[in-house]
Write a structure and sequence with these properties.
192 residues, alpha+beta, Aminopeptidase, five-stranded antiparallel beta sheet, three-stranded antiparallel beta sheet, 30% helix, globular, binds coenzyme A, Acyl_CoA_acyltransferase, Protein N-acetyltransferase, RimJ/RimL family, GNAT_dom, N-acetyltransferase
């Protein structure tokens, strides 16, 4: 039996979604160095840290078949950010693990155009319909209203607020919202 590609190349109206490659380092380093993009992460990342992140993502891509996915502009191939499915690297610490999460990070100049929604809709459908996952979760600090609004646009449901186990007590980002989309709910919504 042929094994299913868990991170296929997908084309949408405006985007190409694909696996990570070495050439994505420039775009990723730019993304991770921007304080506006990284406002709801512990800190911006140096180029060396982005290099390590890319290596980790490419390893996880090998191990799980996916680790988020690159978003490029259709036609130009320009790096816009990432979005997709991922198994959190600190699974053992999460009360709702085992889980597959959906996540996103876009260059600031690409916000407000519906790009994250366009990409995330594809990965939700792929995860729940093709990979037959029972559910996909997403979480973000309570202050990150743009990310939470995206979860709501996707039809995900807020399950709880929780304390992120990887952040120390009192950290400004420790309180997070957890959203979920189950396969049952997704199929019941009548997406075509
Ligand atoms: C979270 C993040 C991806 C959301 O980006 P976004 O641009 O708000 O989301 P979308 O790409 O789905 O765009 C939706 C917006 O585009 C508008 N829009 C314009 N054209 C559109 C179109 N053709 N289709 C859909 N929406 C469109 C929508 O009205 C909406 O605007 P609003 O913010 O005024 O409501 C972005 O803020 C980001 O990268 N943040 C930094 C990283 C981060 O915090 N990630 C999450 C960590 S948990």
């Amino acid at each position: 039996m042929t094994e299913i590609d868990r991170c296929p190349r997908i084309e949408t109206e405006r985007l190409v979604l694909r696996k990570w490659e070495e050439r994505d380092l420039e775009g990723l380093a730019e993304l991770n160095a921007d304080p506006q993009v990284m406002e709801f992460y512990p800190s911006v990342l140096s180029r060396a840290e982005s290099e390590k992140m890319l290596a980790r993502y490419m390893d996880a891509q090998q191990q799980y078949g996916f680790c988020f996915s690159v978003i490029t502009q259709k036609g130009s191939g320009r790096f816009l950010g990432y979005c997709g499915l991922k198994v959190p690297g600190y699974q053992q610490h999460l009360s709702f693990a085992p889980c597959v999460e959906i996540g996103w990070r876009l260059l600031h100049c690409e916000w407000g155009k519906g790009i994250a929604t366009e990409a995330a809709q594809m990965w939700l459908r792929f995860g729940l319909e093709t990979l037959q996952l029972n559910e996909i979760v997403s979480f973000t600090p309570v202050q990150n209203s743009r990310s939470e609004k995206l979860m709501q646009r996707l039809g995900m449901v807020c399950v709880e607020e929780f304390e992120h186990p990887m952040l120390e007590d009192g950290h400004r980002l420790k309180r997070q919202v957890l959203y979920k989309m189950t396969r049952q709910r997704y199929l019941g919504q009548g997406y075509d």
